[in-house]
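Supplementary Methods, section 5.1.

A reviewer requested that the exact input to the structure prediction be made available. We therefore reproduce it here, unchanged from the version used in the analyses.
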Amino acid sequence: MQTIDALRNAWRLPDLRNKLLLTGLILVIYQFAAHVPVIGVNRAALTSLLNSQAGGLVGVLNLLSGGAVRNFSVIAMGVYPYITASIIFQLLVPIIPSLEAIQREPGGQEKIQRYTYYLAIPMAILQAVGQIAVFSTLGGQPIIPGFGQDPMLTLTVIVTMTAGTMFAIWLGDLITEQGIGNGLSIIIFAGIVASAPQNLANLLGSSTQPIYNLILFLIITLVSVVGIVIIQEGVRRVPVQYGKRVRGRKQYGGASSHIPLRVNPVGMIPLIFAQAITAFPAIIVSLFPDGGLGQSITQTFGNHQGLLYWGTFFLLTVGFTFFYAETMIANQNLAENLQRQGGFIPGIRPGKRTHEYILRVSRRITLVGALFLGLIAVVPGIVDLLNRLLFPTEFVAGASSLNAASVLSGSGLIIVVGVVIDTMRQLEAQLVMRNYEGFMR
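The structure derived from this sequence is encoded cell-by-cell as follows.
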C-alpha cells in the first residue's frame, strides 16, 4: 500500500511524471526500432536458428540487445559494442599511466566516456560482421544471403547496424540524463521482461514435462529473487569516530558514524560484462577459416555447452565482481577523505592502515557477493545437468528452450531485480527531496 501511495505521489509531481513518461516513450521507440529488420534478412534461416539447439549465444545477444536479435533488427547488436568498449577501457585505465592521469583530471571521466563512444564504433563494425557470420554458421544457412559477396549490400548492412547501435546507446544515455534510472540497464531490463512470457510459453508448450518445468521455474525464480534482494541490500557497517575540536567556546565533532560497505557494491555489471566476454570467442573465430579449433570454440561458447563454458562464465563473473569492487573502493579514497575530515576507525591508525583495513573488510564481504553472482550465473548449466539426469531421453545439452532457468536466466533475474531496486531508490530520493514518504522504510 505504501508503494502504491508513493507511486501516486510521484505521478502527481510534474517533473517526476515527465521523467517517467519520457522513460516510457524511449522504451516504446526502442521496441519499434527492434522490429525493423536489417535489409536482406532471410527470415526462414533466422527462425530455424532461433528454434534450434544453438540458441545459447543468440539468447545472450538477444538479452544484451533488449530483445532485438530475434527480429535481427537494425539494433540487433543493442548496446553490446559499448559494453565491450567499456570493458576495454576499465582494464586499460589502471594499466596505462596516461589514461589514469586523464581520469584524475577535472572532467577526465567525461573524456574517458567520449573515448569509449569512439571505440564503440569499430567494435560495432567488428560485431556486425562476426554476428552475421556466427549466425550463418550455427544455422547452417546464410542469415543475409549475399553478405560478403555483394559490396553494396555488405556496406549497407554494416553501416545500418552500426548506426542502430549508436542510436541505442544514445537512447540509453537519454534515459540516464532525462529519465529515471540507468538507461542502458533499463533497455536490457525491458527486453528481458518483454521476452519472458513468450519464453515461458515455449517452455511449457514444447516439453512433455510441463508441470515439472513450471514448478522448477517458480522455485528458481522465488529463491533467486529472495537471494538477490538479500545480497543486494546486505551491508557491513564499519564504525567511524570523529575527533573533537574546540573553537572559542564551542565544541565541534566527536560524533559517531559508519562507512556502509555493500556485499555486492557493483550490482549486475559483472554479469553483463561476463556474458559479453563469453560471447566474444564465438564471434572472433567466425572471422577466420573453418577448422577443428574454431568449431570446438563455436560449439562451446556459441551453444553454451560444457564445463569449459560454465566454468569460464563463473570465473569471469567472480573476477569482474572483485575487479569492480576494488576499483570502486580505490576511486572513493575513503581513508584519505576520513583523515581530511578528522575521522578514524576505532583501533585503526589513520592513513595507510585505514585503507588496508577497509580493503581487507571489503574483500571478505565481496567474496560472498562474488560467489553468489557466480552461482546465479551458472544456474542454467546446473538445471541443464539436472534435466539430463532425470529425463535423459527428452532433455539434451544446450536445449535452452527446455530449460526452466533460461526463461529469465540468472543474469536476467539479477538485472531485473537490480534495475527495479535502483529505479525505486532514485524515485525515493526524488520524493524525499520533496518531503514525501519513500518506497523503502
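Residues 432 and 438 are 6 Å apart (CA to CA). These observations are discussed further in the main text.
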